Amino acid sequence: MHCNNELRIFVGTWNVAGRSPVGSLDVDLDEWLNLRDAADIYVLGLQEIVPLKATTVIGVEDPTEATNWNLLIGKTLNNRYGLPMANTFGASHHQ
After folding, report:
1. What are phi and psi of 81, to 5 degrees?
2. pLDDT at 48 over 70
3. Assigned domain for 75 exists
4. What angle do CA 56, 61, 65 make, to 5 degrees?
5. Which residues contact 92 (CB under 8 A, 6 or more apart)?
6. Do 50 and 91 form a contact (C-beta atoms < 8 A)?
7. Where, if anywhere, are coiled coils annotated (predicted)?
């Protein structure tokens, strides 16, 4: 059996420079994710999602901003696809 189906994959990375998607940054992900010509799979990487302060550099990290970004991405993709799956790699959360 031979399958000729095509699969479109969007891979993107964004250094948000410690900015929050709530309040200080007016974020419309539709354009970045190119939802008009949507992919089947989205692979997204965000760097520096925590505020760039001395406390985060020494290891005191609050996962709130990562949660805010995940919620925004989920809301954006949910409008088109339903509930997306999200995994966080390479982040450490200290309590």
Report:
1. -115, -15
2. yes
3. yes
4. 100
5. 59, 61
6. no
7. none
